[in-house]
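Aim 2, interim progress. The first record below pairs a target sequence with its structure tokens.
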Amino acid sequence: MKYIQFWNPGKPARNAVTFTCELAFVLFGLEQGILGIVILGQDFLNQFGHPTGSYLGIIVSLYTLGCFFGCILNYFVGPKLGRRKTIGLAMILIIIGITLQASAFTVPHFMVGRFITGLGTGMETSSVPMYQAELSKASSRGNKVSSEALFVGIGLVIAYFMDFGLSYTNGPLAWRLPISLQIPFAIVVLVSLFFIPESPRYLFINGQKEKAKEVLCYIFDREPDHPDIIESYGEIEEAVALEEIEGKYSWKRLVKKDHARTRTRVLLAYGSMFAQQLGGINLINYYITTVLVESVGLEHTLAMILGGVSTVCFTIGSLVPAFLTDRLGRRMPLVYGFFGCGFCFLMISVLLSIQGSDALQARCGAAAVGFFFLYQLIFGASGNCIPWTICAEIIPLHARAYGVPIAISSNWLWNFFVVEITPVIITDLQWKAYLIFTCTNFAFVPMFYFFYPETKGLTLEAIDKLFSENRTAFMGLVDHKKIFVDQKSESISVEKPQVDYVETA
């Protein structure tokens, strides 16, 4: 799949890569947000027989199950297709799935469409952050990968307010149109792929070493003998050399000890996505309107408006890591963030448990809504964006094409679990349901503090060094600054390549 060098070298080319990746994540947000209000529409309910409870949960969560299998599919086909072709295939699957959903007249028809859309989204979300990370500078990698999750929030905002506006229309237009409007976004991403290059690492490991160097020169607007290109190219060489030393990659490497600590790093990446989902975010993103109606007791129209405000809070919070991840770091924002999210769910549980007069319960309900908004701000600033960055950078280069899909599959497997149980626990447990997520959020605080290292400012090669030189499980207590200082010293000492370094025909 050749690309056209439409963009000027350097920043314009990198911006084109970032634009494509971020637009792909808008699709992610659209699909999550659209069904949250659509499932309450009268024509939708009439068309599909008024599904409720676990049946409704299956219809909604089948998408996330498809995403899980999309990650598994990417594990097998991603290393063969490369980053761009994988993202392109994902867009094609999404277009097919959305078309099936928008044209559905029966529940099985609709569910097949959601599953296929999920396959594409799973492939997309397990390829895009990795692709972005491999074409970013170490100094801005965190911000750029985190900004993708910001655009999930933008997709959610677009979805909620589009749904809200169309909820005043009659007939199938109210739900078929918002679902089908995802297709133009997928088409733009698909077209954009023809104007951005393949990952240089993928090219290198497939024998296209000169092509890999050309891409590095194009993306960073440097000559082949520039120290930045020498350093980046050498990083790829070192990763491939490690792969050759460790032996051919296989899934068994995930359960074996090796010099790069691959098993530990894949588990850390997997755990970050596990925490993201068990923090309860998709209880809100998928069901906020239902929650506000059934748990808080709000009128349906007001619940839809506040659901849209909730997604705005989520997006505003996500601005923080999108611009400041490379200054604030990864580890401590997650520690503080999950503590704050746990406190919000605790207060929601307390407020919704209070019994009394209608006036008292109304005031408590209003306060609970405020804590839903605060949760969205805090989660957006921490757990929404940073785990994607962790997955893209913490897994060693020699295993990234396999390890990232496995890590991202955690997002979708536990997303499926949360989305599936939410309608049931809200109905059966009421205010007690939020205590579950209070406990999980508080449990993640020590997990991130003790076991996750800080990686801000480190090159991918330096992250390898951080793990290989520190064999402890308590990576959160390791001082990453020494590695950072060593990295800076090595960078300063880089000179022009010697004759024996340059490849010859």
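The second target in this work package is listed in the same format:
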Amino acid sequence: MNAPGFAPARHSVDQLPFSHSYAALPPAFYTRLQPTPLPNPYLVCASPAVAELIGLDPAEFAQPEFISAFAGNRIPAGTQPLSAVYSGHQFGVWAGQLGDGRAILLGEVPADASGGMLEIQLKGAGLTPYSRMGDGRAVLRSSIREYLCSEAMAALGIPTSRALCVVGSDELVMRERPETAAVATRLAPSFIRFGSFEHWYYRDQPDQLKTLADYVIARFYPELRDADKPYQALLTEVTRRTAELVAHWQAVGFMHGVLNTDNMSILGITIDYGPFGFMEAFDANHICNHSDTQGRYAYSMQPKICHWNCYALGQALLPLIGEVDDVHAALAGFASAYQEKIDVLLHAKLGLQTDQDEDDELINATFKLMQDNHVDFTLFFRRLGDLQRDNPAADAPLRDLFIDRAAFDAWASQYRLRLGREIDNGSSSDAVRRAAMHAVNPKYVLRNYLAQVAIDKAQNKDFSEIARLQKVLERPFDDQPENEAYAALPPDWASHLEVSCSS
């Protein structure tokens, strides 16, 4: 049975039933404005799965009205375009007022039969009052990366914003070099950030802070309204969601790249894809963002930084919570929530159904072995599922990933002993474990070089590789033998790729 307000019929763009809860907040929270038209726009890519989420007919992709609407050249019926204000800490330093410098919110639409809502936002739609020194545009390169990664993360089961489409243009904008402009349309239940609360705290405007917190609780955390201390409960829940989110990132080797407080979702979902990367040759201290010269957002730092960001949110909510001890109590749940989630995820990745005393030692030894050999993160865990408990002779595909084969052999012996203490599934135990491990260890992730190949072709108006790659990434856990090349080690030239905050 469909939830009230959701129409399963497929809509055209102008039939989408927009509503505007964020626009109902006081005017200080945003600026109403129109997108800047994109010259001679063309469709680069679009996601049928996301269209289905909001009841949009994928046949619309071929219509000029669809392209013009999501280029920002035409305002769809029922929308109320606006850009939101927020502030934040960037690389650990208070940056003051920021805001949607190139993003324009159109409104929200019913999301699916569950009764949820999704905001629709144009990223790269032109100058806003919050653009600072920017031009308000996104480039084709970064828009394709965000589109592909949003959908790849959703397929991996990681909480994330989604991407409906990318519309391109031959208009040139300057980054490190001239690049063509694009608009990416992204969706999320909300794009409110930690920095949205920091904005009002540092401006010493407690009434606006309360208004925002009450809005977030009423719309996204209604179960907290009747709590004895609802604002403390809000911080507790956001802290828990954030801890579990970063555990998911660590478990697939995902690096966000720029975990500023203005890029942290109040809903605990992944937003603002920029200089992200998936771990390849394992290095716990790997920095995926070329702009991160101090390594603040390295892979190993992500849990600590997300915890730090929760403290920044706790500071902003202090006027509402009232007691510092209550803030600390809410934040204290981060470590346990993270540890519980990462333990569950890593046990599953290693094919361990039970939790035993020596497991921490085995897990630490696994990552040390990976670190010492710089083994490919995704391939290691995927091939580990093929290991046969009683047949070391079949280890070659996994063993060949390691420089120090003797060290691998010693580790594999310990791993096999641990498997021997698992529940015995009889003669099918290897097959059962393989199926379970392959269901959580992806074969396909969005490696930077795969995205770059698609981008290079798209810059020559060939968008076929985006569609092909998206299809592969929609089924990351399936073997897909016809797409084996997408699971291969990166080529030598990929080591020279760099992504930065301009990505």
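The mean pLDDT is 95. This observation will shape the mutagenesis plan for the next reporting period.
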